[in-house]
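Q: Can I see a sequence and its folded structure?
A: Here is a first one.
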Amino acid sequence: MAVPWLAGRGGPRRLALGGASMLGQLVLVTVAALALIWALVTADFSLQYVANNSSLRTPLYYRVTGLWAALEGSLLLWEWMLVAFAGLAVWQQRARHRELMPWLMAVFSGVSAFFLGVLAFASPPFERLWPVPLDGRGLNPLLEDVDMFTHPPMLYAGFVALTVPYAFAMAALITGRLDEGWIATTRRWTIGGWLFLTLGNIFGGWWSYHVLGWGGFWAWDPVENASFLPWLPATAFLHSVQIQERRGMLKVWNVSLIIVTFALTIFGTFLTRSGVLSSVHAFSSGPVGGLFLGFLALVLLGSFALVALRADRLRSQPEIDSMVSRESTFLLNNVVLAAVTFTIVLGTIFPLVAEAVTGVKLSVGAPYFSRVTVPLFVALLFLMGVGPLIAWRKASADNLRRNFLWPAVLSVVVAVALAVLGVRDLWPLLALTLSAFVLLTMIHDTARAVAARRAIAGEGVLAALGSLLRRNQRRYGGFVVHLGIVLMVLGITGSMNFSQEHSATVASGETVGLGRFTLRFEGLRRMQRPTHERVEADFRVFNDAQELGVLSPALKFFPARQSPVGRAVLRMSLKEDLYLILSGFSEIKSGQATVKVMVRPMVNWVWIGGGVLVLGTLLVIWPFRRAAREA
């Protein structure tokens, strides 16, 4: 930590020395990570980590993922990403923000020193094992899935990328250089971290849906909450920072959001690696949790002490001119996101605090989170439709009428149509109606802009859309992001409120029906796989007498586990998913199986919406203008 700071105090040569020290650290950590991967690939069971997370039966590609399958390796991956991202950020901004560089490198090095200390003393990945076993335990069976290559690395990348705006904020506070320069510099890093977190959570939902075998994609598990929590203040920051860029307001609030976002990445790490939680996602190891909790306290106390120290320079002069304005809408958006964050934090830590005080184990489940957060998310939907189109400073009656009259009228028509079709429950009706409102506002605004562009430049529709996107990436890329969220809301609302399920025990040749589907049981099969034995139940699927194929849910039996692991199967479509879970079976010869059948409407729109959201984010940060200038 001291070397980069001292190096930066004495001019360009010493600043280069600080950069060289960070490069050297990157090389050493890279060598350590590659050494652990090599040990996993070659099944070097003399390392305790390899013996615990690999085996001779483990396929090669899953041996590689063993790097992040448990505590020690995941922290090493985290440290490698940290020094890589830190080095890239310093190299990119070494000329533009030279005055911040010493402190920027010091903050990066301080965070890195903490992780290196944990790896060296509390959770070493290269601890030796004696006597050397002939074989290892292998991966947790739930981790033997292709999403092991995407979900954890994406989350780690999101957590680590958000260290960059935090380090810039701390450097700006320490030096007193609190203009909008550091905000503009870190905007893409914040969006990048937000994008990685988004991908990590989407892949995690898909993993939960098709691997864990319960038919859902989000259970408000504490570790799921830990990955979602930093996403919320990061989202708030990306909205409120626009007010600071345009009006010079909310400086304290924006710095505080960056601090809270980074602190929640550490809090999430504490939850998943302290052993205080019982979860399929969580790791557990001795003193690591206490170290992360102490580091979290240091981050919060030190960061907000700097905010207090620089309070005079952070005071914003302008004030909100009207409650009917884009500033007030974005601010209200931030308040709702803060309320969602507080609600989830409270529900996540309350059982831990209650157990520490009373000694009694309590649980806060999905009903609490759904009951409290659904109204807040519905409010966010409304603000998502209003915020991008309402005028800055003060919206006139003409602005409101021009932008919102027809979308509002058509949304009322949608609400009436939904009620006629049988959607009568309040929250689903509101969610679907407001989703229509958001979609209609975007279509209305874009259609007007395309018409104007065609009238002025004589462009075709597609050319006009391309011109609008290049000229205002933030606005129209943001529209695509909002479209993705709307599609996800449709999928979440449909699957949560209109699903069907039925369990039955059937013998060979018997059928079970649900909705428009009929399934005929055709028998059991026992199969051998490299790491386990599997029993599959074959069901031939019919839809209104039309054959759709065979689905084969299974139970997998691993040598190191006493109970089997389920393998759910599903038939996917845009309208609905047919989802089968094998709950149990009798002897293979007698051929009797217990199956749970689910019909999940519209759930695939969650994944489609996630893809659209990612596309919109890429459109926001893609260097269209730079490419146009170079051309």
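Q: Show me another, different protein.
A: A second, unrelated one:
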Amino acid sequence: MVDALATTIALMSDPIVGIDLGTTHSLVAICDETGPRVLADAEGRTLLPSVVRFLVGQAPVVGHEARAHAVEFPLDTIASSKRFMGRSHAESLRIAEGFGGRLAEGPRGIAAFEAGGRTVTPQEVAALVLAKLKATAEAALGHPVRRAVITVPAYFDDGQRQATRDAARLAGLLAERIVNEPTAAALAYGLNRARKPETIAVYDFGGGTFDISILRIEPDETHAASDLFQVLATNGDTRLGGDDLDLLVMQWLLTQAAAQFGPLTPSPGVLQALRTFAERAKIALSDRDAAPIEIDLGAGRALRCTLSRAELVAMARPLIDRTLEKFRAALTDAGNPTLDRVVMVGGSTRMPAVREAVAALTGLDPYTALDPDQVVALGAAVQAHILMGGRRDLLLDVIPLSLGLETRGGAVAKLIVKNASIPTRATETFTTAVDNQTGIVLHVLQGEREMVADCRSIGRFELKGLPPMPAGIPQLEVEFAVDANGVLTVSAAERRSGKRASLQVVPSHGLTAAEVDRLEREAFAHARQDMHLHRVVDLAVNARLDLKWIGEALARTREALEPTYMEELEASMTRLKGFCEAAERDPAATDADAFHKAKDALDQLSMRLHETSIARSLKSMTPPKGSPRT
């Protein structure tokens, strides 16, 4: 009773939210004594598109509006940026096909984008999405939110996890825990299942990534709110998701267009339109046998075609087969246990072909009672509740990929092997191969191969100031420690000299602490200007809609209005149009308060117009006297 009260008080004053930072959509959730729930924005929407638009001289636009106008601003709108988190520019070029945006090389060769006249890192894009979710949570809860549990794909490596933490910091959030997405889904599933031991598979096929985790859930018979969640094995692919199927449909559409109109060189806007229609057709075919498509290609050409479910399944089959390969590998690593349940997570699992393939592999009907778009965020909120003392579940996750050091000759000495439970640590002793070395560079790698060239570089650091000694004499003790977030810290000590070095490894393709500090300072320095720009942009969008609706109502009722009222109304509309045009030319110089007053004045003045329009509509619907009633 006392514990529950303390947790409730803490939740009200300093809540920890759960966030699913997704490739396509993102969500924020909270968990209290009544259970987890996803938080909605002011319009009642729970899914926030992970899309950001950058325009010169304007504040970034995040979410629904950015997605809705992506065709108009194809080169300045960034979507699916999660795929580029913690990657190098060279890697990004290999996974960029069909990407809506311009790739660039960021600091030290990391992946970045050109948008809005500047270079933007994936961390900055993610930070803007997280900040939007933070604002949604604060509005819904009525309290400041500064802490979060954030989910990542289970197969995210150390660099990608570090990039996620950097994004949270830029958004003004402390990432209390980084949780693997399938593990979060298992936590949400655990609340609704019968309290008995179960071995489950979480099949997470999302917009940009695929993960499969095998877990054992053991109930604590002494406490109703306490279970053991032990991850037995995990596998996956951070370059496999619904985006890849969208790309295949785009290519199919281009083939159809070439057959009708000859070879095409589509503009960025047309490519963005193709991507949008490809995604819509894919979603529609989850419930239909065929999806008609019509796209304006410009120059008087309109592509009209129909995509059947059978054609979509044929395109998707190689992708689905890749997920099944990962599934089999995870089962093997877990010791081929008998599964009690397969929990489906991620928007791509809505495809009937995906569910049928999983059922055929496992002999089990996939569990789809939980919303595949919300289950990860709900699980993150459960983990947040655990951290606040609301539940006593014990979560034992695993490391997805082995960690090691480069040794002489380009080999890799593995200190921590994949599927080791975290938190974990390992120690190994090394020595030198060259006489009189005074410094040793430690190259940290992640992967399952035996050679450096076949593994992923995580980072480097140097132990300096060693006294000159013959080769083989120094005794270098290296310790790898992976915390509960899956984040690696490396320490090294030379026993004879006592020299030590210890640091959280800065990923080769991540932001340095100094760069994160700079971005934080810039965000703080420009906060007032950014808020002004955002306000002006929002006013312009809403004012344009008001002018459209008022213009349509005016066209219907003009003859019923007094000339003096008409003149006053049109003058007010002209004034508001002037503010909209000024906002487009130079939003920074636009007087936001005056803009708001002009919009409010027109809203008040137009009430009479709307009343007249409604009255005319009702009158037209009233049957004449003597007419029969139905």
